[in-house]
Every structure is written in C-alpha cells, then in structure tokens.
Design a protein that fits this description.
Layout lengths: L2 H16 L16 H6 L17 E9 L6 H9 L6 E2 L12 E2 L13 H5 L3 H17 L11 E6 L5 H12 L10 H5 L3 H10 L5 E2 L7 H14 L5 E8 L4 H10 L28 E9 H6 L6 E10 L9 H15 L8 E3 L6 H15 L8 E2 L2 H4 L6 H15 L1 E2 L22 E2 L4 E7 L4 E9 L3
Parallel strand pairs: 4-5, 4-6, 9-10, 9-13
Antiparallel strand pairs: 1-7, 1-8, 2-3, 6-7, 8-14, 11-12, 13-14
Length: 464
C-alpha cells in the first residue's frame, strides 16, 4: 500500500473512532441525530433497512434474581431504589496484597434452599445462582411444564467465565499433586453451559437451549436471542438470563493488573461511581438474573402477569479493541434496538446504562447516547445500577433488564449513587443519588462488553 494511502486510511480510522479529528462529535441536524452516521447504517441508500416480518410478540411473565443486595427480586429492587450499596471488603479469600480488596458479594445465599445437597456438591456457585434465579422466575410466572409442552420451552443462560471457582479449586488440587482428588465432574461443572443444562433438568424443559458468553453483554444477548426464538416460532416460552460467580483470586488479580477496578478500598460503598468525575474503575460483583419470556397470546390466555413487552433487540461488535470501546459502534447498537422496536429516539423515557465507572466506558457511552438519540439525550434520565450492585459481568445485562422493567412498573427510576462531582465529559442526566418518580413507557437497557460485544434491549410498559 502506498504510504500516502496508508496515512489517509489511518486518519479515517481515527475520525471514525473519536468523531471529528479535533475530538468533537459529528454535527447533527433535523431531530438532532447525525444524518451522515444515520445513513451509514444502510450504506448508500440513506435509509435504515429494517425488514419487520410478521412475527409474534414477546412479553416477560416471570423474573428471578440473586444480587449483592438480596436473594430475591423485590428485596433487591427495594434496596436499589433506596440507594443502598452492596459493595464491601472481599471475604471469599485473603485479598490483603491486592490493589483492589473490595467486591459486591452475594450474602446469605444457601444453595440447599434451592437444590439438594448432592446437586449442590456437583455444581459451581454460578450454576447454583442460576438455578435459584430460574426457580424464582418459573414460580413467579406460574408457567406449567407438562407432558404436552416441554419441547416448546427452552433455556438460554449465559456466563462470562462459567465455573471459574471450581476450575481454580481443582487446579490447586492438581498442582499440589493430589491427582485423585480432582473432581470427575469438573468438566460438567466449569463449562459455561452448565447453568442452562441444570436449569433444563430442574424445570424439565426440552426446547431450544444453549449458553451465551459475550463478556459483559452476555445477559442482554441471552435475552435477545431467546426473544428471537419465540418471535420466529421456534419456542413458545424461553427461560433466559445470565449468572456469574467470579470473585476468586486469579480473576480479581487479573482485573487489578488491567488497572480497570476501583482501589477505593477504605470506602467500599462509595467505590462504584459511574459517570462521576472522581471514578477510578468498576467493582466486580456476582449473582444471577433470569426472565421468563412468553408469546403474548399464550400469556394472555392463561392469565399471566405481564411485566413488560420486549419490543426491540440490537446486537453488534466494535471490531476495534479488546478493552477500549468504540462509541460509534455502541450508538449503532442503540439504533438497531430502536429500529427493531419501531420506535423513535423521542419515545425513549429512560436508559438503564451500562455505566461501569471506568474512565473510558462512561465517556464512550455518553457519546453513544448523544449520537444515537440526538437532542433528546439531553432530556433523558439515565442511571447505572452498577453504582450499587457492582459489575456482575455475564449476569449484569439480565439483572439490569429486570430492574429496567420494574422501573416501568413502579414509575421509579433508581439513582446513580456516589455522584458527587460532575464530569464535564459526561454531561447528561444520570439521576444522581436519589431515585426519581417518572412515568416510563419505553426504556432501553445497554450492555457493552469487553471485546466490543454490544447488546441493547428495548422494553415497553404493559397496559393490561
């Protein structure tokens, strides 16, 4: 390639990643959404190609969650709205030599409350969280699994790192020379599909099932993929979500090495500070979130309680960097969800942000929201649940999707806590410190993962 052409290509790449060459966002017109960027979604036509084939409508009829705030959905939701933090000093291992010595651990979880002792011995903690959340969701939905329908009910349960605790424990056993003590069930315990496998056994469902692993976007992708299966007739009910239990030495140490986690060890409850000027990184959390998705007519027919309708799903990848986000790609993902839902930017009443509290992510997400939603972004309440529950990795998107629907149900937007000093680069409304009463008819839930994996879910309030 000629040197001049190479330099020209590099300039184009820099402009694509960061807006104009002086760092400003591209100019906007009309409704405030950049026209050139909008046209680029469909190439040369200047229109977004969105083929909305006739498809079935999907609603959420059950939810279950295990979070650092509580074991259970309503208890977690109450704590979230009150602005309580689940972050504290790590108790799972001695982290005294670690740069980060805090995490958002799940307290008061007893596996035997949800599965028998034998099964508990043969499952990793992330799978136990998944089984517990799925059981809650199934009970909440009052779905009846019987001889006539198990092949029409499936499971998609994701995890970023699967049974890492079990793997580490057995690796230590092997290194110590205790070969015979390595578990014969290791393979089935640490694979990321273990959660989906065990949920299907526990509930007796035999439809389309799989695991998803797309880093921090896992939970959102699991829900979106499950929605597609119902929309296109491959299933009538899907049990979908994510689970994670990664508070182990090797994982926390690796995040310390990456310099991406908060080191505010003396004030753990104030450590996670999304979009705030003095933020210094995310706090790793753990838990699980599971939703029961159901075809609308079937849900109505059996008189199910409907939390919300899942109307849109966007998914893409940055193809840019392992850890640095591309705001333009994130904006495209938001637009894909809006197009899939057939709603305009002006119809969005709330965004449950990815909001990790890292320097790069929060600025990138702010730019993405501005680019995708134009001037409407300045009037839009946005908040980050991670300020209280930490970053649940593969479970984040699912737990936050549940909280998004509850915000619609109760007309309450949970706050972004620890928001003391505004960041000039993050200049939107992040609902600082105190929950806000707002009628939410339509909401988005963003999940932007390592490797540039992006997922956005769009929900509409259900009016019976």
């Amino acid at each position: 390639m000629p040197a001049g052409q190479r330099h020209q290509d590099e300039d184009v790449t820099r402009e694509t990643r960061s807006g104009t060459r002086d760092g400003r966002l591209p100019s906007t017109s009309g409704n405030g959404v950049n026209s050139e960027w909008r046209e680029s979604l469909s190439g040369k036509t200047g229109k977004v190609h969105h083929k909305r084939m006739r498809r079935r409508r999907v609603v959420v009829t059950g939810v279950g969650a295990v979070t650092p705030l509580a074991v259970g959905v309503e208890q977690s939701w109450q704590a979230l709205c009150e602005g309580r933090s689940g972050v504290a000093a790590i108790t799972r291992f001695d982290a005294s030599v670690f740069g980060t010595r805090i995490a958002a651990e799940v307290d008061d979880f007893h596996a035997e409350d949800f599965l028998d002792k034998k099964k508990a011995r043969r499952t990793d903690l992330f799978t136990q969280y998944a089984i517990a959340a799925a059981g809650m969701a199934a009970k909440d939905s009052r779905i009846d699994v019987n001889k006539s329908n198990p092949y029409r009910i499936g499971v998609i349960l994701g995890s970023a790192v699967g049974g890492i605790s079990t793997l580490c424990k057995n690796m230590t056993t092997l290194v110590e020379g205790k070969l015979e003590a390595v578990s014969q069930f290791l393979a089935s315990m640490f694979i990321t599909s273990a959660g989906a496998n065990e949920i299907s056994v526990a509930l007796g469902v035999k439809g389309p099932s799989r695991s998803v692993s797309t880093a921090c976007a896992t939970g959102g992708h699991a829900i979106g993929d499950a929605c597609r299966l119902i929309q296109h007739g491959d299933a009538d009910v899907m049990i979908a979500g994510g689970a994670e239990a990664s508070i182990v030495p090797i994982f926390i140490w690796s995040i310390c090495q990456l310099k991406a986690s908060s080191t505010r060890n003396d004030e753990p409850r104030k450590a996670s500070r999304p979009f705030e000027k003095d933020r210094d990184g995310f706090v790793t959390g753990e838990g699980a979130g599971v939703l029961v998705l159901e075809e609308l007519d079937a849900a109505r027919k059996r008189g199910a309680t409907i939390y919300a309708e899942l109307v849109g799903f966007g998914s893409n990848i940055d193809a840019y960097h392992a850890t640095k986000p591309d705001y333009e790609s994130q904006a495209r993902c938001i637009q894909l969800a809006l197009d899939d839902a057939a709603i305009s930017a002006a119809e969005v009443d709330y965004i449950n942000a990815h909001g990790t509290a890292t320097r790069l992510n929060d600025v990138s997400e702010t730019k993405a929201i501005k680019l995708a939603l134009g001037r409407h972004s300045g009037n839009l309440p946005i908040s980050s649940n991670k300020s209280m529950i930490g970053h649940l990795w593969g479970a984040s998107g699912a737990v936050e999707a549940i909280f998004t629907m509850l915000a619609m149900r109760d007309s309450i937007i949970p706050p972004t806590i620890n928001y003391d000093n505004p960041d000039p680069e993050c200049d939107l409304d992040y609902v600082p410190n105190v929950a806000r009463k707002v009628n939410v008819e339509c909401a988005l839930c963003n999940s932007f993962g390592f490797g540039g994996m992006n997922s956005v879910l769009a929900f509409k309030k259900w009016h019976s």
